[in-house]
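User: Hello! I'm new to structural biology and keep hearing that structure can be predicted from sequence alone. Could you demonstrate with Protoheme IX farnesyltransferase, mitochondrial-like? Please show me the input and the output so I can see what each looks like.

Assistant: Of course. The first part below is the input, the amino acid sequence of Protoheme IX farnesyltransferase, mitochondrial-like. The second part is the output, the predicted structure written as tokens.
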Amino acid sequence: MWRNVFVRRLLPHSHSQSNHTQHASTKLGFLIDSKSHAIRSSSSAAASASVDLSSLIRHYGRCYWELSKARLSMLVVATSGTGFVLGSGSAVDIAGLCWTCTGTMMVAASANSLNQVFEISNDAKMKRTRLRPLPSGRISLPHAVTWASSVGLVGTALLAWKANMLTAGLAASNLILYAFVYTPLKQIHPVNTWVGAIVGAIPPLLGWTAAAGQVSLNGMLLPAALYFWQIPHFMALAYLCRNDYAAGGYRMLSLADASGQRTASVALRNCLYLIPLGYLAYDWGLTSGWFCLESSLITLAITASACSFYRDRTTQKARKMFHASLLYLPVFMSGLLFHRLTENQQSLAEEHSEKIVEHSSSSETVAKESESINRKNKSSNSSVGRRARPPVAYASVAPFPFLPAPSYTSP
């Protein structure tokens, strides 16, 4: 009986303990769930923040890429790098080449960005430009101006620091010419094409001055090629996109040339101007003689496409000329780099030419001496009669002045 009373008294106490334990475990589980939920919430928030940051970086990176017209800027960098290598002489400073290309890329990106800043309304009217960052509203105007100004200043300062002030001055001048002269001129007069050709001709000169530190006659060859090449290239593009340019309000030569005859003639004339450049590169000691042949072949190819466009002014012929112009420039620059002569080779060529000159002058002296000897022989032999001259006597004068003058003995 006492045992039953003890058990009855003990059971409620045990039951209360079990209830307390269950409540504590439930509370602990709730706390753990709350903490895990908080951890999951914080991790998801961090993940969403990282996703937002990466998408933001991709968005503005793409906007900067399009504002800079990165492909066009890389072409500008390629011409500048070619000019640097041509002006380097025997050894190319790789670090200087990299700094020059970086600074040129930044200045070109700034110029192209400012070009789009000034042409927002015009770009919005054209099919091929209406989706650019500014007309489409993907980036604000103050943001684009800040980007263009910053990258332009940094690029110019980099060229002044790592190259020289002449190179930095050329880069700054080209930026101003492109953004503040060429860009507004596109809506005023067709002469903008020729101003744009000057803009495209300066980067290789910029690279040359970065390597050589000065402007020389040899350094003007690649800029001349860039200038004359751009005219048929732009004329083909203006003819192909003449309706788009008319909608955008740009004054191109093709808009006032319904038949396309003036456009085609200008393109053909500037292709002909490219023909002597290969010979000048050899004559000025910049390349070997093989470049004359290669330059002539590719120049005849682009000239043939321009001549075909002149005879049959159709969209198909203009597109062929445009594609030929795209092929001409990389082949021409590659040939310049492949056949370029270093300073040692140029000095050897100069020594060889000097030897040829000395040899020809000595040959002329020998020829004159032989003529004087012949006169003496004629005067001395006039009384005894005329004798036949040996064959070698005739060989000692032109066209074989290199043979020694013969000596005659009296019988």
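User: So the tokens describe the shape?

Assistant: Right, they're a compact way of writing down the 3D structure. Reading them back into a model, for example: The chain has 16 helices and no strands.
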